[in-house]
Amino acid sequence: MKIKINKARKIITTWLDLLAKGDYEPIIKVWSGPKGTRRHLFRGGKSHRSHHFLSDGEYRFGIYAESLSHTINYFELSPLYNIEKAIGIANEMGIRYPTDRDGEAYVMSTDFLCWEYDSELHKMVKIARSYTLSILTG
Predict the structure, then answer these.
(1) In this structure, what CATH number is given to the domain that contains residue 90?
(2) Residue-level pLDDT at 5
(3) CB-count burial class (<10 Å; 0-12, 13-18, 19+) for 115
(4) Cβ distance 75 to 125 under 8 Å?
(5) 28, 35, 77, 84: which has the fewest C-beta neighbours closer than 10 Å?
(6) Does residue 126 register a pLDDT over 80?
(7) Count of Cβ atoms closer than 10 Å to residue 53 Cβ
(8) DSSP code per residue over 47-103
C-alpha cells in the first residue's frame, strides 16, 4: 500500500512556520491527549511557556531538563518533521508506518527535542530524546 503524505506535509509545514516565528506548539496538547491519564501543564523557566506533558514520566523529565545547565531549551511532543525519512526507517525495520483509513501518514512525534550546549563541540546541538532513555543515560 502506498502511503500518502499530503496531510502530514501540511501539518508539518504549519508547525515549522510557527516554530520559525518563535510560537512553538506541541503536536499534541494535554487536552487532546488520552483521557484518564495523568497529564501536566508546566511553566518552563528556560522556555517561558507552558509545556504539555502527557505522563508523570514526561513531567519528571521536563523538570530534570530545566535543572541541567547545558539545556538551552526543550520542546515536548515535537513532530518528526522529515516524514520521508521516518517512513523509510519504518520500512527498513519491517514496521508498517501508521496511516489513517485513507492511507494518509500520521505525523509521529518524539517525547522531547532538546537544544543543548555541547562543550566538546563548542556549539548548540539538537537531540531527540525519549524520557525513559534520557533519565537512564543522562
Answers:
(1) 3.40.1350.10
(2) 85
(3) middle
(4) no
(5) 35
(6) yes
(7) 25
(8) T-SEEEESSHHHHHHHHHHHH-TTEEEEEEEEE---HHHHHHHHHHTT-PPPB-TTS
pLDDT at 131: 72
- Report if residue 1 sits inside a domain: no
Instruction: Please state, in angstroms and rounded to a whole number, the distance separating the CA atoms of residues 86 and 58.
Output: 22
Higher confidence at residue 64 or residue 29? 64
CB 112 within 8 A of CB 47: no
How much is the pLDDT for 93? 94
What single letter denotes the amino acid at residue 12?
I
Cβ neighbours for 121, distance < 8 A, ≥ 6 positions apart: none
- Per-residue confidence (pLDDT) for residue 70, from 0 to 100: 94
